[in-house]
């Protein structure tokens, strides 16, 4: 019985060692793209707002055009109806070398309610917008879906 226990421990040790992830000295996290007019261009869907996933009935889609520096946005946040907004946006870097995104609406309402510090994640497939009172996560999508 004693030999069985020793054999069992030896086998388990071999299995544990073989399952360990090899350590790679030069393993570095992949660099994330800068937030530029080109990397932000395209369609995005808000997937998390203020730390919570959006419900299935709630949506916000935004599409950025890098050439005209214009955006179009469709959402139903705070309304049972789809709202369409458009305007211009700009990207700059602040003193801390963070990327800052701002926008102005076409409909006369004025500037966006917040100035957002933005980071690209997942090799440009997600972006996180940071504001004083909220954080938002957007995921890249191929196109804005048909909205009723």
Largest sheet: 8 strands, antiparallel, barrel
* Second-tier CATH architecture: Beta Barrel
Note the beta-strand portion.
Answer: 35-45%
H/E element sequence: HHEEEEEEEEE
Write down the Rg. Answer: 23 Å
- Output the CATH class name: Mainly Beta
The low-confidence runs, each spanning 5 or more residues with pLDDT under 50, are 1-24
**How many structural domains in the coordinates?**
1
- Judged by helices, strands and strand pairing, the structural class is mainly beta
Approximate shape = globular
Report the count of strand segments. 9
CATH topology name, in short, is: Lipocalin
Q: What do these coordinates show?
A:
It is a single chain. The chain has 148 residues and is mostly beta strands. The chain has one domain (37-141): Beta Barrel (Lipocalin), CATH 2.40.128.280. Helices cover 15% and strands 39% of the residues. The protein is built from two helices and nine strands; from the N terminus they run ααβββββββββ. It has helices spanning 2-19, 37-40; strands at residues 42-49, 52-53, 60-65, 70-75, 83-93, 99-105, 116-121, 126-130, 135-141. The protein has an eight-stranded antiparallel β-barrel with strand order 1-3-4-5-6-7-8-9. β8 and β9 form a beta hairpin. It is globular and about 40 Å long. 9% of the residues are buried. Mean pLDDT is 81; it is low at 1-24.
